[in-house]
Amino acid sequence: MCKKYNVAVVGATGLIGGKFLETLEKRRFPINNFRAFASEKSAGKILRFNGSNYIVEKLDGNDFSGIDIAFFSAGKDVSLKYAPIFAETGALVIDNSSAFRGDEDVPLVIPEINAADVFKRKKNVIANPNCSTIIALVPLKKILEKYGVKSLVFSTYQAVSGSGMKGVSDLLLTRQGFSGKFYPYDISETVIPQIGEIVEDGYAEEELKMINETRKITGRNVKISATCARVPIENCHGVSVEVETETPIDVSTLAAEAEYSAARYKRIPTAYDANGKNEVYFGRIRKSGVFKNGFSYFAVGDNTLKGAALNAVQIAEYIIKNTR
Questions:
Q1: Catalytic site residue 237?
Q2: pLDDT per residue over 89-144, tens digit each?
Q3: Phi first, then psi: what are they for 175, rounded to 5°?
Q4: Active site includes 236?
Q5: Catalytic-labelled residue, pool 2, 228, 236, 237
Q6: Is the pTM of this model over 0.85?
Q7: What gap in Å lies between CA 307 and CA 47, rounded to an integer?
Q8: Which of 112, 122, 185, 232 is buried most deeply by CB count within 10 Å?
């Protein structure tokens, strides 16, 4: 008989929190007891999950004992405050924020690439990577293994759902001619080439996340440059990737070599292909005009699923499957 677990979702009423509920239900995650947490503003709301109704609980002053696995998707500040408390009471925390991604004692995991790192954790916390990092790297799995990678250049085209419900609301409002409340510009009419604050050498926070996270996940000191932009679509991030490999490659065979269960080749991949899908789609493969041993590709994935909730649930599934 399959063991079942006491599971919590923190940030359950948010956009990604909803995706966690949907993903856990669709994948028939082995749940014994379930608890949903959110801000005090959302406490008391009723959530429908797995055929039952659950009352949303507040975090402040609550008792978290008995929880085996806690999925966090409530933002960096909430994770920094409450994830250690959950972990101390015995829960394995899988955190979707940026709070612990740079912590040397916390594994940063894309299961297809570095799943075994989950067992190197020194705290009871595992970090989920940035959505764009996941989407960019999933198609590189076999290339990393066979050819190695020396340099990467990322350019992202990130949907408003990456900003949560506030971003989606802004897009819908501005499309109807109303003023937005979240972005500094009318997102329905432009591309915003900055995500997060400018923090170092002209790089914005989102760009540094991709750079630092890629190095941590791959375990390689890869040369990386990144430019991240917000675009006026509701869901699915696109990433243009320029790759320099350590050994020579044959671009004509790369599509077949790179494709596997999580990365599907399509000559022209779009958000229409990836929306609501578990796989990352990649295409537009061509020889690099910059690197002798190099190529370019375009990847697109559902940032709310593989870029967030699905990746986190897959981490938990891997741990369950490989723990005796």
A1: yes
A2: 999 999 999 999 999 999 999 999 999 999 999 999 999 999 999 999 999 999 99
A3: -65, -30
A4: no
A5: 237
A6: yes
A7: 23
A8: 112
